[in-house]
Each structure stands twice: as structure tokens, then as C-alpha cells.
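Components:
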Amino acid sequence: MSTLADFPVKPEARPYLDVFTETASEPEWLRRARRTSLDRFAEAGFPARRSENWRYLDLRSLEQHPMLPSVMGRPMGVPAGLGLDASAARIVLVDGRFVPELSRLDVPSGVWLGSTRQAVTERPGLVKAFAADTGSEHPFASLNAAFFADGFVLEVGGGVSLDAPIEIVHLASGAGDASLHTRSMIELCHGSRATVVETYAGEGKYWRNDFALWRIEHEAALTRVALVEEAGEATHFEDVDAVLLSERAKLNAFSLLLGGGRMRQEISVTIAGVDAECRIDGAFVVGGMEEANIVTTIDHRLPGGKTGELVKGVAAGRGHGAFQGTIKVREGAQQTDARQTSRNLILGRRASIDTKPELEILADDVKCAHGASVGELDETALFYLRSRGLPADEARRLLIEGFLREPIEGIADAPIRDHLLRRLSLRLARLEDQ
Amino acid sequence: MLEIVNLHARLKDGREILKGIDLSVGAGEVHAIMGPNGSGKSTLASVLAGREGYEITAGSVTYLGRDLLAMPADERAREGVFLAFQYPVEIPGVNNMYFLRAALNAARRHRGEPELDAGQFLRAVRARLKLLEISEDLMQRAVNVGFSGGEKKRNEIFQMAMLEPRLAILDETDSGLDIDALRLVARGVNGLRSPDRAIVMITHYQRLLQYIEPDRVHVLQGGRIVESGDKSLAAELERRGYGAADAA
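Structure:
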């Protein structure tokens, strides 16, 4: 059953409109949200190449060969070494759908953790907050809202501290060259804290198109770590809306993009609380023909906010990386302290990295600084390591790893940090052969 | 151990720096190479260690009977050549201990010896840190990052003590050191003197040679060794300056 649209539909959106069906078992508010979102996507189509936020990513192949939403997943397990050794709870989503047999949902009282589908019945209030698409600049988030199969919801009640991390593993089987859409939410009530580690991996060809909303209330602190190790032919898009709702809310986000033909992560943070703080750090590694794109927007709306950003990138082979970071400081957001750094390393003549820091400052009593660089391996350092007996390839690897360690070392939780460093080492061991 | 014959080297821009160096260093010997700024001292050290950016236009260097110039820098190191840098390099993100262990094990693998286990390695590290009065927490930092000038130089000698080279080349190791640091460095180097190890010290000043007594002293000037003698030559140079050596 296709919807009737009374406005011009972009041709690249047509195949998605054609396969849209309503699920009778879903509540009317959700079905309505899906329809509205589909209409938005149909009208907007894919982001234009001239759209600033998408200028560094080539979407033509995706436009020409539609990857329709997956209808059914194919069972698969979590690859060895990919998961954390010790997590409080684990949710595994395969092809965008919650797999209870692979998941562990034991959480303390005051915490609700489950799949988005389950939350539709048990936590409808929360799902209503993120089911409908809100932004017009994010057509893939609209597509996601129309089609999402599942996702996860974590709600941490006031004053509750989760010591061990909550782990979310997103797997893709590659069945049917399909697109996978999960829609998720993390809500931290006042004074609570939680660490969420999300890992992405898969096989074959697929297009992951995820969306998440994070809301952090006063004096609550969320640490969220993303580890992206998608298949070589995969497209990985992730769009996050984070809102620091009230005073002294805190967000620490870290992303490590290690694999995937086309990876893009966009995080938009709204600082809507006085003295709220966020750190958005990340690192990407691209080799072969891979593309990675980290896009961040931090919108300081209230005074006393703090932002720290450190994103490092390494490109080898014909890899292409890009960092786009915007920091806005609105008129009322005095005493904002924002620092943004983008450092990049290019290995070889065919690799490339773009970096585009942007500050829009409308308040006069603020501290804002940004820096960006793109360079090559330091020959003097390389000689120093070799002069101590390290073979050239080992010396190069050590330097590349050393370069990327800085943002990872900002992660306070030692087991998570070590896990990421291990995954990074494995990735770098095969980087320069690509 | 080391035979340098008529060595000529130039920079990539064509400037000739070394214009026919002849030098023979035997096992167990300590040689000092002195000379004014720009005489080619550091170039000689770089060429021996295998740094890129120099072109050898004539001459040969034989180390333990092998053609040293044919080996890449890292192989020279694994074969027992060590260069203490004039300006030790800071390497952010690379942990000192990790680096040192990787270097040590690369050499051991090269010699067909088993790698050191963590306990053996730590014991070796601690003994040598003590000798050079380096605090153990410096070792947990990134290589040379946040080290004072003196700590960097001591770290070079510490690395040398760990790697136990056959041929050590110290490039201006005394520059920028206060007297206490100089004594520690000298103690470290003297502790490494042995019948099967040769040490070549490159220095601008005689000061270092009061603490590490050389068997031979050479004056390098204009890309050539213009004068050689025993340790008394160093004192003489201090008196009369390098200008007179030219005339000699």
C-alpha cells in the first residue's frame, strides 16, 4: 500500500514510498508519525551535493541503487573480540531488530532498558518524544522515522548511577542489500549517570541509517562511546540529537570510526542548560576506498556552557576523511568556553582529508578557540624510532597509533579505553596494505 | 670495529659536508671528535646512523666487517649501532616503556634470542634507571614528552644502556647539561665502557672529556679530520682554539 502524496516527490525517494506499509498493530500516534516523516522525506529527497553538511560525501551510488528497508533479518552472533568483557547489560540488534536470545537486560531498579518496540507499549511517553521527525535538514532522519524497525530505549531515573557500561551491539547480516533503520533514545533524569557503548559491525552490503535522541537533565552525566567496524561495502549513517536540558548536565561522547565503505556520524548538541558541559571526541581511520565523515554542531543557548572537541583522523590508500565542526554561541550564552581541535594525518599521495571548523559567535564575553591541521608522518620521529631498531613498518604503525591515542585516552573507563585501543591496533595492522 | 675510509657526503641540495673522512675505531676504544660548529660533526653522526637526506658520493664505512652504508637505519640499530641524539625527539602518544620493549625485542629477534618477558624487562629497566637517576614515572609517559632538556639526554643514555650497542655514537650529549646532569650522563657512559664496545663522542667542548676519558681525540674541520692525538689534544684545543688547528 503506498501513500498518496499531494506534493512533488523527489525521484530518488519514490522507491521508498512504494514499499511503505503501515503496521496495523502499531498505535495510531506512531503510524501518524511515520506517515508525516515519510512525506517529509518524499518532499526533501536525498541531501543535495551543495548541502553544506553533506558536501564531503558522495551519495550518487546510493541514489542510483535504492537500498530498501530490510523486511526480515538473518540470524547472526556477535563476532569474537568485538564485545566488551564486562557490561552491566547488553542489547543486540541484528538487522535493526532486537534479538532477546543474545541480549541481557538486567538493570537495577529505577532504570528502564529495552527495545524501542517494547517501549512503544511500556514507555509510550518517551517514544512519542522521538518517534516523529523534527528537523527539516535531515532527510535521512525522516526516512528513518518512517521505516525504523526497532532500536533501544534507556531511561535512567533520578539519582541512579550505573557503574558498569550498558552495551548495545548493532549487527548487520547483509541479507538482501537492504537498509537498516533503528531509532533509539537515551534519557538521563536529574543527577543520574550512565555509560553506553555502542558497537557496529556486519557482513556484506547494507546501508545502516540510525537515529538517536539523547536527553540529559540537570546534573546528569552521559558517557557514550561508539565503535564503528562495519563491513567494507557498508554505508553507515548515524544522526544524533543530544539535548543538555538543564543546569550542569554533562555529555561525554566519543566515536571511533574504524571500518565501513562510507561512514558518517552527525552529532548535534543543544546546550539548553546553564553551566552544561559537553566533550565530543573522536577518531577515524580510512584506507582503501573508505570514506569517513564526522559532523558536529554544538549550539550554546545558555550561559556558562563548556565544549571541548578533539577529533583526529588518519587516511591511507585512497581513503577520504572529513571533519565538519560548528560551534554556535548565541547572544545570551555568555561565559561560554569552547575549544575545538581537528588534527589529521595523511599517509600516501592518494589519500585526502578535509577539515572545516566553524565558529558562529554572537555573545561578547566568551572564550572560543579552534585549530585544524592536516599533515604527514613526522620523518624525524620515524628516524628516531628506526634508529632504536624498530623496522620501518612497525615504527610507522607506532607513530600512527600514538597520534590517534590522544582522544581515546580521554575516556575515563579503563576497560573501555583498552578495548578501543586493542580494536585500533588490529585495524592499523592492516591499514597500509590497503 | 669501525673503519671509515675517504668518506664524502653531501646534502640533497648538493652542498658537500663531509670531504674525505678517515677514521678507525677499535673495539674497547673511546674516541672524541671535536670541532667548531658547521665542521660536519653531526652530519657524520647522522650518516653513520643511517638518517635519510644525505648522499654518499665516495668512500666506505665498514662495521664489524660489513658495509654499514648498505644497511637501512633500523638494521644498523639491530646490528648494534646506537646514536644518542643531539636533540632527542618527542613522540606524543608513544609510551616510553612500550617503545623501549619493542626496540629491545626487535634486536633480540634479529639475533635469534627469545623476547624478554615483562618481569625480566622491568628488572633491567629499574637497574638502569637507578644508575641514571631517572624516576620511574617518566617511563610511563610518552617518549620525551614533558621531559626537561637534561632528562631527555639522560633518557638517551638510558636507552643506550638498555640496548647495549657494540658501537655508540654520542652526538653533543653534553650540550645543554648542567654539571650534575653531566656527571650522571658520564657515569652512565663510563659504566658502558667495555672491551667489546666502541664509543664515539661528538662534542664541541672539552668539558665532557674531563668526565669520560677518551683514548683518541680527533679534530674535524671543513669536513675532514685535520688532527688526531691522545687526550692531551683536547686540553690543548681548549687553550689555543680551533683556529690554530687549521694552521697545524
